[in-house]
# Entry
Amino acid sequence: MKLRTYKNFFKEALRNIFRNRVMSLASIVAIMSALFILGVVLILAFNLEHIAGGLESKVEISVFLDKDIGSNQARAVVEQIEKNDGIYEIEFISKEEGLAQWKKELGEKGDLLEGYEGNNNPLPDKLILRIEKPEYVDGIISILNDIPEVDKVNYSQEVVDSISRIVQTTRLVGLLLMLMLIIIAMIIINNTIKINVYSRRREIRIMKYIGATDSYIRWPYIIEGFTLGIFAAFFAGALVIGGYNLLLSRAGQMAGNYAFFNLFQLLPTEKMIYDISLTFLLVGCGVGIIASIISTRKHLKA
Amino acid sequence: MIQFKNVSKVYENGTKALSNVNFTINSGEFVFLVGASGAGKTTAVKLILREILPTQGEIIVNGRDITKLKKKEIPYYRRNLGVVFQDFRLLPDKTVYENVAFAMEIVEARERDIRRQVPSVLSMVGLASKAESYPHQLSGGEQQRATLARAIVNNPSILIADEPTGNLDPDTAMDIMRLINMINHRGTTVIMATHASEIVDAMKKRVITFKKGIVVRDEEKGGYANEASNI
# Structure
Protein backbone atom coordinates (compact mmCIF):
# COMPACT_ATOMS: atom_id res chain seq x y z
CA MET A 1 0.00 0.00 0.00
CA LYS A 2 1.06 3.54 -0.66
CA LEU A 3 2.54 5.71 2.05
CA ARG A 4 -0.30 8.17 1.68
CA THR A 5 -2.75 5.38 2.39
CA TYR A 6 -1.08 4.79 5.75
CA LYS A 7 -1.30 8.49 6.45
CA ASN A 8 -5.02 8.19 5.72
CA PHE A 9 -5.26 5.29 8.17
CA PHE A 10 -3.79 7.42 10.96
CA LYS A 11 -6.07 10.32 10.12
CA GLU A 12 -9.02 7.96 9.98
CA ALA A 13 -8.14 6.32 13.32
CA LEU A 14 -7.72 9.60 15.14
CA ARG A 15 -10.97 10.92 13.68
CA ASN A 16 -12.75 7.76 14.74
CA ILE A 17 -11.46 8.17 18.28
CA PHE A 18 -12.63 11.75 18.37
CA ARG A 19 -15.97 11.15 16.67
CA ASN A 20 -16.84 8.23 18.91
CA ARG A 21 -15.45 10.08 21.88
CA VAL A 22 -17.90 8.62 24.40
CA MET A 23 -16.98 5.12 23.30
CA SER A 24 -13.29 6.02 23.16
CA LEU A 25 -13.38 7.53 26.64
CA ALA A 26 -15.22 4.49 27.97
CA SER A 27 -12.59 2.25 26.36
CA ILE A 28 -9.72 4.25 27.83
CA VAL A 29 -11.31 4.18 31.29
CA ALA A 30 -11.96 0.45 31.07
CA ILE A 31 -8.43 -0.36 29.89
CA MET A 32 -7.02 2.07 32.44
CA SER A 33 -8.92 0.40 35.28
CA ALA A 34 -7.69 -3.01 34.24
CA LEU A 35 -4.12 -1.73 34.04
CA PHE A 36 -4.47 0.07 37.35
CA ILE A 37 -5.45 -3.11 39.17
CA LEU A 38 -2.65 -4.90 37.35
CA GLY A 39 -0.30 -2.16 38.52
CA VAL A 40 -1.34 -2.54 42.15
CA VAL A 41 -0.68 -6.26 41.91
CA LEU A 42 2.64 -5.65 40.17
CA ILE A 43 3.73 -3.35 42.98
CA LEU A 44 2.63 -5.96 45.51
CA ALA A 45 4.52 -8.67 43.65
CA PHE A 46 7.65 -6.54 43.28
CA ASN A 47 7.61 -5.73 46.98
CA LEU A 48 7.09 -9.37 47.90
CA GLU A 49 10.06 -10.16 45.71
CA HIS A 50 12.02 -7.38 47.41
CA ILE A 51 11.18 -8.74 50.87
CA ALA A 52 11.97 -12.26 49.75
CA GLY A 53 15.32 -11.09 48.42
CA GLY A 54 16.00 -9.42 51.75
CA LEU A 55 15.22 -12.63 53.60
CA GLU A 56 17.44 -14.63 51.30
CA SER A 57 20.44 -12.47 52.06
CA LYS A 58 19.93 -13.22 55.74
CA VAL A 59 21.53 -16.63 55.18
CA GLU A 60 24.84 -16.75 57.02
CA ILE A 61 27.61 -19.33 57.36
CA SER A 62 30.06 -19.14 60.23
CA VAL A 63 33.56 -20.46 59.50
CA PHE A 64 36.07 -21.19 62.26
CA LEU A 65 39.71 -21.39 61.23
CA ASP A 66 42.39 -23.50 62.82
CA LYS A 67 43.51 -21.96 66.08
CA ASP A 68 47.22 -22.10 65.32
CA ILE A 69 47.32 -20.23 62.00
CA GLY A 70 48.75 -16.76 61.73
CA SER A 71 47.01 -13.66 60.47
CA ASN A 72 48.71 -13.82 57.06
CA GLN A 73 47.48 -17.35 56.53
CA ALA A 74 44.01 -16.28 57.64
CA ARG A 75 44.02 -13.47 55.12
CA ALA A 76 44.97 -15.93 52.38
CA VAL A 77 42.02 -18.11 53.32
CA VAL A 78 39.67 -15.13 53.15
CA GLU A 79 40.94 -14.31 49.68
CA GLN A 80 40.45 -17.89 48.60
CA ILE A 81 36.87 -17.96 49.84
CA GLU A 82 36.07 -14.56 48.29
CA LYS A 83 36.64 -16.00 44.82
CA ASN A 84 33.53 -18.14 45.04
CA ASP A 85 30.13 -17.13 43.63
CA GLY A 86 27.18 -16.41 45.82
CA ILE A 87 28.99 -14.66 48.68
CA TYR A 88 28.23 -10.99 48.88
CA GLU A 89 29.99 -10.20 52.14
CA ILE A 90 32.69 -11.71 54.34
CA GLU A 91 33.09 -10.45 57.84
CA PHE A 92 36.43 -11.34 59.38
CA ILE A 93 36.51 -11.52 63.17
CA SER A 94 40.06 -12.12 64.39
CA LYS A 95 40.64 -14.04 67.61
CA GLU A 96 41.48 -10.75 69.34
CA GLU A 97 38.30 -9.10 68.20
CA GLY A 98 36.37 -12.20 69.17
CA LEU A 99 37.76 -12.06 72.68
CA ALA A 100 37.04 -8.36 73.03
CA GLN A 101 33.48 -8.94 71.84
CA TRP A 102 33.03 -11.77 74.31
CA LYS A 103 34.34 -9.64 77.13
CA LYS A 104 31.92 -6.92 76.22
CA GLU A 105 29.02 -9.37 76.21
CA LEU A 106 29.95 -10.59 79.69
CA GLY A 107 29.81 -7.02 80.95
CA GLU A 108 30.98 -6.67 84.51
CA LYS A 109 31.91 -10.35 84.63
CA GLY A 110 34.38 -9.57 81.83
CA ASP A 111 37.28 -9.97 84.16
CA LEU A 112 36.62 -13.71 84.11
CA LEU A 113 38.46 -13.74 80.78
CA GLU A 114 41.50 -12.03 82.27
CA GLY A 115 44.69 -13.79 81.31
CA TYR A 116 43.43 -15.24 78.02
CA GLU A 117 44.90 -12.47 75.89
CA GLY A 118 47.74 -12.98 73.48
CA ASN A 119 49.01 -16.48 73.03
CA ASN A 120 46.60 -17.82 75.62
CA ASN A 121 43.58 -16.82 73.49
CA PRO A 122 41.40 -19.96 73.19
CA LEU A 123 39.32 -18.52 70.35
CA PRO A 124 39.92 -19.23 66.67
CA ASP A 125 39.70 -16.63 63.90
CA LYS A 126 36.13 -16.55 62.62
CA LEU A 127 34.55 -15.65 59.26
CA ILE A 128 30.91 -14.82 58.75
CA LEU A 129 29.86 -15.34 55.14
CA ARG A 130 26.66 -13.66 53.97
CA ILE A 131 25.18 -15.64 51.12
CA GLU A 132 23.13 -14.18 48.26
CA LYS A 133 20.71 -17.08 47.96
CA PRO A 134 20.04 -20.30 49.88
CA GLU A 135 20.80 -22.27 46.71
CA TYR A 136 24.49 -21.39 47.03
CA VAL A 137 24.85 -22.78 50.55
CA ASP A 138 25.57 -26.43 49.75
CA GLY A 139 28.24 -25.64 47.18
CA ILE A 140 30.00 -23.16 49.44
CA ILE A 141 29.94 -25.61 52.37
CA SER A 142 31.66 -28.31 50.36
CA ILE A 143 34.30 -25.84 49.15
CA LEU A 144 34.88 -24.69 52.71
CA ASN A 145 35.29 -28.26 53.93
CA ASP A 146 38.06 -28.77 51.38
CA ILE A 147 40.14 -25.89 52.75
CA PRO A 148 42.67 -27.38 55.20
CA GLU A 149 42.85 -24.25 57.36
CA VAL A 150 39.12 -24.44 58.02
CA ASP A 151 38.41 -26.16 61.28
CA LYS A 152 34.66 -26.00 61.52
CA VAL A 153 31.71 -24.75 59.50
CA ASN A 154 28.53 -23.71 61.21
CA TYR A 155 25.19 -22.92 59.68
CA SER A 156 21.60 -23.70 60.38
CA GLN A 157 20.14 -26.01 57.77
CA GLU A 158 16.69 -25.33 59.20
CA VAL A 159 16.96 -21.59 58.81
CA VAL A 160 18.24 -21.97 55.29
CA ASP A 161 15.44 -24.35 54.37
CA SER A 162 12.65 -22.31 55.83
CA ILE A 163 13.91 -19.10 54.24
CA SER A 164 14.13 -20.97 50.98
CA ARG A 165 10.55 -22.18 51.38
CA ILE A 166 9.15 -18.79 52.30
CA VAL A 167 10.93 -17.13 49.42
CA GLN A 168 9.73 -19.72 46.93
CA THR A 169 6.13 -19.51 48.10
CA THR A 170 6.20 -15.74 48.04
CA ARG A 171 7.57 -15.70 44.53
CA LEU A 172 5.00 -18.20 43.35
CA VAL A 173 2.14 -16.22 44.87
CA GLY A 174 3.46 -13.01 43.32
CA LEU A 175 3.86 -14.63 39.94
CA LEU A 176 0.41 -16.23 40.00
CA LEU A 177 -1.21 -12.97 41.01
CA MET A 178 0.61 -11.19 38.23
CA LEU A 179 -0.35 -13.76 35.60
CA MET A 180 -3.95 -13.76 36.76
CA LEU A 181 -4.19 -10.01 36.58
CA ILE A 182 -2.49 -9.85 33.20
CA ILE A 183 -5.04 -12.33 31.87
CA ILE A 184 -7.92 -10.41 33.44
CA ALA A 185 -6.59 -7.15 32.02
CA MET A 186 -6.33 -8.79 28.60
CA ILE A 187 -9.92 -10.03 28.78
CA ILE A 188 -11.22 -6.62 29.77
CA ILE A 189 -9.26 -4.82 27.08
CA ASN A 190 -10.29 -7.39 24.50
CA ASN A 191 -13.96 -6.97 25.36
CA THR A 192 -13.71 -3.21 25.28
CA ILE A 193 -12.22 -3.21 21.80
CA LYS A 194 -14.72 -5.86 20.70
CA ILE A 195 -17.65 -3.63 21.71
CA ASN A 196 -15.96 -0.72 19.99
CA VAL A 197 -15.67 -2.65 16.75
CA TYR A 198 -19.12 -4.23 17.09
CA SER A 199 -20.74 -0.81 17.32
CA ARG A 200 -19.28 -0.06 13.90
CA ARG A 201 -19.90 -3.41 12.21
CA ARG A 202 -22.26 -1.75 9.72
CA GLU A 203 -19.44 0.45 8.53
CA ILE A 204 -17.24 -2.58 8.04
CA ARG A 205 -19.92 -4.20 5.87
CA ILE A 206 -20.33 -1.08 3.79
CA MET A 207 -16.60 -0.86 3.21
CA LYS A 208 -16.61 -4.47 2.09
CA TYR A 209 -19.40 -3.76 -0.42
CA ILE A 210 -17.44 -1.02 -2.08
CA GLY A 211 -14.39 -3.23 -2.46
CA ALA A 212 -12.13 -2.35 0.46
CA THR A 213 -9.62 -5.10 1.23
CA ASP A 214 -9.64 -6.64 4.68
CA SER A 215 -6.36 -5.04 5.65
CA TYR A 216 -7.58 -1.67 4.41
CA ILE A 217 -10.58 -1.93 6.74
CA ARG A 218 -8.53 -3.31 9.59
CA TRP A 219 -5.63 -0.84 9.75
CA PRO A 220 -7.50 2.14 11.22
CA TYR A 221 -8.94 -0.14 13.89
CA ILE A 222 -5.48 -1.44 14.76
CA ILE A 223 -4.12 2.08 15.04
CA GLU A 224 -7.15 3.02 17.10
CA GLY A 225 -6.68 0.10 19.50
CA PHE A 226 -3.01 0.97 19.80
CA THR A 227 -3.75 4.62 20.52
CA LEU A 228 -6.43 3.86 23.10
CA GLY A 229 -3.97 1.46 24.73
CA ILE A 230 -1.26 4.13 24.88
CA PHE A 231 -3.56 6.67 26.49
CA ALA A 232 -4.85 4.15 29.01
CA ALA A 233 -1.32 2.96 29.82
CA PHE A 234 -0.17 6.52 30.33
CA PHE A 235 -2.98 7.47 32.68
CA ALA A 236 -2.87 4.17 34.56
CA GLY A 237 0.91 4.54 34.94
CA ALA A 238 0.60 8.07 36.29
CA LEU A 239 -2.10 6.94 38.70
CA VAL A 240 -0.22 3.88 39.97
CA ILE A 241 3.15 5.56 40.33
CA GLY A 242 1.67 8.71 41.87
CA GLY A 243 -0.33 6.60 44.30
CA TYR A 244 2.69 4.56 45.26
CA ASN A 245 4.79 7.66 45.86
CA LEU A 246 2.09 8.92 48.20
CA LEU A 247 2.11 5.58 50.01
CA LEU A 248 5.90 5.69 50.30
CA SER A 249 5.90 9.14 51.87
CA ARG A 250 3.16 8.06 54.30
CA ALA A 251 5.09 4.91 55.13
CA GLY A 252 8.17 7.05 55.71
CA GLN A 253 6.28 9.12 58.26
CA MET A 254 4.96 6.02 59.96
CA ALA A 255 8.41 4.46 60.08
CA GLY A 256 9.55 7.53 61.94
CA ASN A 257 6.96 6.83 64.60
CA TYR A 258 6.81 3.06 64.77
CA ALA A 259 9.86 0.85 64.57
CA PHE A 260 7.75 -2.02 63.21
CA PHE A 261 7.55 -0.41 59.79
CA ASN A 262 11.30 -0.52 59.46
CA LEU A 263 11.13 -4.28 59.37
CA PHE A 264 9.90 -4.35 55.79
CA GLN A 265 11.42 -1.70 53.61
CA LEU A 266 9.15 -0.79 50.69
CA LEU A 267 10.80 -0.83 47.31
CA PRO A 268 11.59 2.68 46.07
CA THR A 269 9.56 3.82 43.04
CA GLU A 270 12.57 4.19 40.74
CA LYS A 271 13.16 0.45 40.91
CA MET A 272 9.71 -0.32 39.46
CA ILE A 273 8.93 2.58 37.16
CA TYR A 274 10.57 0.94 34.17
CA ASP A 275 8.99 -2.49 34.65
CA ILE A 276 5.54 -1.09 35.30
CA SER A 277 5.63 1.31 32.34
CA LEU A 278 6.84 -1.44 30.05
CA THR A 279 4.20 -3.89 31.26
CA PHE A 280 1.46 -1.29 30.85
CA LEU A 281 2.54 -0.38 27.35
CA LEU A 282 2.91 -4.01 26.31
CA VAL A 283 -0.37 -5.16 27.80
CA GLY A 284 -2.32 -2.01 26.87
CA CYS A 285 -1.12 -1.57 23.31
CA GLY A 286 -0.42 -5.22 22.60
CA VAL A 287 -3.88 -6.32 23.59
CA GLY A 288 -5.35 -3.25 21.91
CA ILE A 289 -3.80 -4.27 18.62
CA ILE A 290 -4.50 -7.98 18.92
CA ALA A 291 -8.08 -7.39 20.02
CA SER A 292 -8.62 -5.08 17.05
CA ILE A 293 -7.36 -7.73 14.67
CA ILE A 294 -9.47 -10.48 16.23
CA SER A 295 -12.69 -8.52 16.50
CA THR A 296 -12.49 -7.03 13.02
CA ARG A 297 -11.79 -10.45 11.59
CA LYS A 298 -15.08 -11.67 12.96
CA HIS A 299 -17.00 -8.93 11.14
CA LEU A 300 -14.88 -9.16 8.03
CA LYS A 301 -15.90 -12.78 7.55
CA ALA A 302 -19.56 -11.86 7.14
CA MET B 1 -21.37 -9.46 -19.45
CA ILE B 2 -23.06 -11.41 -16.71
CA GLN B 3 -24.05 -14.99 -17.21
CA PHE B 4 -25.90 -17.34 -14.85
CA LYS B 5 -25.40 -20.98 -15.89
CA ASN B 6 -27.65 -23.53 -14.17
CA VAL B 7 -27.40 -21.64 -10.92
CA SER B 8 -29.11 -23.09 -7.86
CA LYS B 9 -28.94 -21.83 -4.33
CA VAL B 10 -30.15 -23.68 -1.26
CA TYR B 11 -29.56 -21.84 2.01
CA GLU B 12 -28.23 -23.64 5.04
CA ASN B 13 -31.68 -23.67 6.62
CA GLY B 14 -32.97 -25.63 3.62
CA THR B 15 -34.70 -22.77 1.80
CA LYS B 16 -34.50 -23.23 -1.96
CA ALA B 17 -33.89 -19.69 -3.19
CA LEU B 18 -32.93 -20.39 -6.81
CA SER B 19 -33.42 -23.50 -8.95
CA ASN B 20 -31.48 -23.95 -12.14
CA VAL B 21 -31.47 -20.32 -13.21
CA ASN B 22 -30.06 -19.32 -16.60
CA PHE B 23 -29.75 -15.86 -18.08
CA THR B 24 -27.25 -13.65 -19.85
CA ILE B 25 -26.98 -9.91 -19.45
CA ASN B 26 -24.90 -8.13 -22.07
CA SER B 27 -22.66 -5.17 -21.49
CA GLY B 28 -24.55 -1.90 -21.46
CA GLU B 29 -27.94 -3.52 -20.86
CA PHE B 30 -30.53 -2.30 -18.38
CA VAL B 31 -32.29 -5.21 -16.69
CA PHE B 32 -34.94 -5.38 -14.00
CA LEU B 33 -35.07 -8.40 -11.73
CA VAL B 34 -38.62 -8.59 -10.47
CA GLY B 35 -40.67 -10.91 -8.34
CA ALA B 36 -42.37 -11.03 -4.99
CA SER B 37 -40.44 -11.18 -1.76
CA GLY B 38 -38.67 -14.49 -1.55
CA ALA B 39 -38.88 -15.11 -5.29
CA GLY B 40 -35.11 -15.13 -5.58
CA LYS B 41 -34.12 -11.71 -6.94
CA THR B 42 -32.22 -10.65 -3.82
CA THR B 43 -30.41 -13.98 -3.85
CA ALA B 44 -29.42 -13.29 -7.45
CA VAL B 45 -28.07 -9.87 -6.44
CA LYS B 46 -26.12 -11.35 -3.54
CA LEU B 47 -24.65 -13.95 -5.87
CA ILE B 48 -23.46 -11.29 -8.31
CA LEU B 49 -21.93 -9.34 -5.44
CA ARG B 50 -20.18 -12.55 -4.43
CA GLU B 51 -21.66 -12.14 -0.97
CA ILE B 52 -22.76 -15.78 -1.14
CA LEU B 53 -21.82 -18.75 -3.27
CA PRO B 54 -24.29 -20.80 -5.34
CA THR B 55 -24.93 -24.40 -4.35
CA GLN B 56 -24.57 -25.29 -8.02
CA GLY B 57 -23.75 -23.63 -11.29
CA GLU B 58 -21.46 -20.97 -12.67
CA ILE B 59 -21.70 -17.21 -12.58
CA ILE B 60 -19.56 -15.54 -15.22
CA VAL B 61 -18.92 -11.83 -14.81
CA ASN B 62 -16.72 -10.06 -17.36
CA GLY B 63 -15.36 -13.40 -18.50
CA ARG B 64 -14.55 -14.84 -15.06
CA ASP B 65 -16.37 -17.46 -13.06
CA ILE B 66 -16.77 -15.55 -9.83
CA THR B 67 -17.69 -18.68 -7.88
CA LYS B 68 -14.02 -19.60 -8.21
CA LEU B 69 -12.68 -16.30 -6.85
CA LYS B 70 -10.26 -16.58 -3.97
CA LYS B 71 -11.24 -14.76 -0.82
CA LYS B 72 -8.48 -12.24 -1.39
CA GLU B 73 -9.72 -11.46 -4.89
CA ILE B 74 -13.24 -10.56 -3.81
CA PRO B 75 -12.53 -6.90 -2.88
CA TYR B 76 -10.82 -6.35 -6.23
CA TYR B 77 -13.72 -8.01 -8.05
CA ARG B 78 -16.23 -5.77 -6.24
CA ARG B 79 -14.45 -2.67 -7.47
CA ASN B 80 -15.92 -3.46 -10.91
CA LEU B 81 -19.36 -3.16 -9.42
CA GLY B 82 -21.20 -0.12 -8.19
CA VAL B 83 -23.74 -1.00 -5.54
CA VAL B 84 -26.88 0.77 -4.39
CA PHE B 85 -29.18 -0.48 -1.65
CA GLN B 86 -32.64 0.34 -0.38
CA ASP B 87 -31.21 1.52 2.94
CA PHE B 88 -28.49 3.68 1.33
CA ARG B 89 -25.62 2.43 3.50
CA LEU B 90 -23.59 5.59 3.63
CA LEU B 91 -20.88 5.84 6.26
CA PRO B 92 -22.59 7.90 8.96
CA ASP B 93 -19.43 9.60 10.23
CA LYS B 94 -18.37 10.93 6.87
CA THR B 95 -19.67 13.82 4.82
CA VAL B 96 -21.15 13.23 1.37
CA TYR B 97 -17.85 14.26 -0.16
CA GLU B 98 -15.89 11.93 2.12
CA ASN B 99 -18.25 9.05 1.44
CA VAL B 100 -17.70 9.35 -2.28
CA ALA B 101 -13.97 10.07 -1.90
CA PHE B 102 -13.65 6.98 0.30
CA ALA B 103 -14.56 4.73 -2.62
CA MET B 104 -11.63 6.24 -4.51
CA GLU B 105 -9.29 6.11 -1.53
CA ILE B 106 -9.72 2.37 -1.14
CA VAL B 107 -8.53 1.86 -4.71
CA GLU B 108 -5.63 4.19 -3.85
CA ALA B 109 -6.52 6.73 -6.49
CA ARG B 110 -4.30 9.77 -6.72
CA GLU B 111 -5.23 12.70 -4.49
CA ARG B 112 -5.43 14.93 -7.55
CA ASP B 113 -7.87 12.56 -9.27
CA ILE B 114 -10.02 12.37 -6.16
CA ARG B 115 -10.22 16.14 -5.92
CA ARG B 116 -11.27 16.37 -9.54
CA GLN B 117 -13.55 13.35 -9.84
CA VAL B 118 -15.62 13.61 -6.65
CA PRO B 119 -17.06 17.11 -7.25
CA SER B 120 -17.80 16.20 -10.85
CA VAL B 121 -19.77 13.11 -9.85
CA LEU B 122 -21.55 15.01 -7.09
CA SER B 123 -22.71 17.68 -9.49
CA MET B 124 -23.80 15.01 -11.94
CA VAL B 125 -26.18 13.55 -9.33
CA GLY B 126 -27.20 17.05 -8.25
CA LEU B 127 -25.59 17.05 -4.83
CA ALA B 128 -22.80 19.61 -5.31
CA SER B 129 -24.31 21.89 -2.71
CA LYS B 130 -24.56 19.11 -0.13
CA ALA B 131 -20.94 17.93 -0.32
CA GLU B 132 -20.18 18.92 3.25
CA SER B 133 -23.41 17.53 4.74
CA TYR B 134 -23.54 14.36 6.77
CA PRO B 135 -25.93 11.56 5.73
CA HIS B 136 -28.33 12.21 8.61
CA GLN B 137 -28.76 15.78 7.37
CA LEU B 138 -30.00 14.58 3.97
CA SER B 139 -33.41 13.50 2.73
CA GLY B 140 -33.88 9.92 1.51
CA GLY B 141 -33.62 10.99 -2.11
CA GLU B 142 -30.42 12.93 -1.44
CA GLN B 143 -28.91 9.99 0.40
CA GLN B 144 -29.67 7.74 -2.55
CA ARG B 145 -28.05 10.26 -4.90
CA ALA B 146 -24.97 10.21 -2.70
CA THR B 147 -24.95 6.41 -2.85
CA LEU B 148 -25.21 6.55 -6.63
CA ALA B 149 -22.34 9.02 -6.76
CA ARG B 150 -20.26 6.65 -4.64
CA ALA B 151 -21.29 3.69 -6.80
CA ILE B 152 -20.15 5.26 -10.07
CA VAL B 153 -17.18 7.37 -9.00
CA ASN B 154 -14.71 4.65 -9.99
CA ASN B 155 -16.48 4.10 -13.34
CA PRO B 156 -17.59 0.51 -12.67
CA SER B 157 -18.72 -1.55 -15.62
CA ILE B 158 -21.79 -2.77 -13.74
CA LEU B 159 -24.23 -1.00 -11.44
CA ILE B 160 -26.26 -3.21 -9.12
CA ALA B 161 -29.25 -1.68 -7.42
CA ASP B 162 -31.26 -3.64 -4.87
CA GLU B 163 -34.62 -1.89 -4.34
CA PRO B 164 -33.04 1.53 -4.72
CA THR B 165 -36.42 3.26 -4.62
CA GLY B 166 -37.90 1.18 -1.81
CA ASN B 167 -37.62 3.94 0.80
CA LEU B 168 -38.52 6.83 -1.47
CA ASP B 169 -41.75 8.59 -2.42
CA PRO B 170 -42.87 8.15 -6.08
CA ASP B 171 -41.54 11.52 -7.32
CA THR B 172 -38.15 11.07 -5.74
CA ALA B 173 -38.10 7.49 -6.98
CA MET B 174 -38.57 8.70 -10.56
CA ASP B 175 -35.72 11.21 -10.10
CA ILE B 176 -33.46 8.38 -8.98
CA MET B 177 -34.59 6.25 -11.94
CA ARG B 178 -33.72 9.09 -14.33
CA LEU B 179 -30.26 9.18 -12.79
CA ILE B 180 -29.82 5.43 -13.08
CA ASN B 181 -30.99 5.61 -16.67
CA MET B 182 -28.43 8.32 -17.36
CA ILE B 183 -25.71 6.17 -15.83
CA ASN B 184 -26.82 3.33 -18.11
CA HIS B 185 -26.58 5.62 -21.11
CA ARG B 186 -22.94 6.28 -20.24
CA GLY B 187 -22.36 2.59 -20.94
CA THR B 188 -22.70 1.06 -17.50
CA THR B 189 -24.62 -2.22 -17.30
CA VAL B 190 -27.49 -1.77 -14.83
CA ILE B 191 -29.14 -4.58 -12.90
CA MET B 192 -31.95 -3.49 -10.66
CA ALA B 193 -33.98 -5.70 -8.36
CA THR B 194 -37.31 -4.20 -7.49
CA HIS B 195 -40.99 -4.79 -6.94
CA ALA B 196 -42.02 -1.27 -7.85
CA SER B 197 -44.33 -2.20 -10.75
CA GLU B 198 -45.02 1.39 -11.87
CA ILE B 199 -41.31 2.02 -12.32
CA VAL B 200 -40.77 -1.19 -14.26
CA ASP B 201 -43.76 -0.47 -16.47
CA ALA B 202 -42.64 3.12 -17.11
CA MET B 203 -39.05 2.32 -18.02
CA LYS B 204 -39.76 -0.23 -20.77
CA LYS B 205 -36.57 -2.19 -20.20
CA ARG B 206 -35.72 -5.88 -20.18
CA VAL B 207 -37.45 -7.66 -17.29
CA ILE B 208 -36.44 -10.98 -15.77
CA THR B 209 -39.23 -12.29 -13.58
CA PHE B 210 -38.56 -14.68 -10.69
CA LYS B 211 -41.16 -16.89 -9.08
CA LYS B 212 -40.27 -19.31 -6.34
CA GLY B 213 -36.67 -19.38 -7.41
CA ILE B 214 -37.31 -19.98 -11.08
CA VAL B 215 -37.06 -17.52 -13.98
CA VAL B 216 -40.61 -17.54 -15.33
CA ARG B 217 -40.29 -14.69 -17.84
CA ASP B 218 -37.49 -12.85 -19.60
CA GLU B 219 -38.81 -10.10 -21.87
CA GLU B 220 -37.27 -7.24 -23.81
CA LYS B 221 -39.10 -3.99 -23.03
CA GLY B 222 -41.26 -5.90 -20.59
CA GLY B 223 -43.66 -4.85 -17.91
CA TYR B 224 -44.25 -5.94 -14.38
CA ALA B 225 -45.94 -9.26 -15.12
CA ASN B 226 -48.82 -10.78 -13.22
CA GLU B 227 -46.68 -13.74 -12.29
CA ALA B 228 -44.61 -11.40 -10.18
CA SER B 229 -47.36 -9.64 -8.34
CA ASN B 230 -49.89 -12.42 -7.82
CA ILE B 231 -47.92 -14.43 -5.30
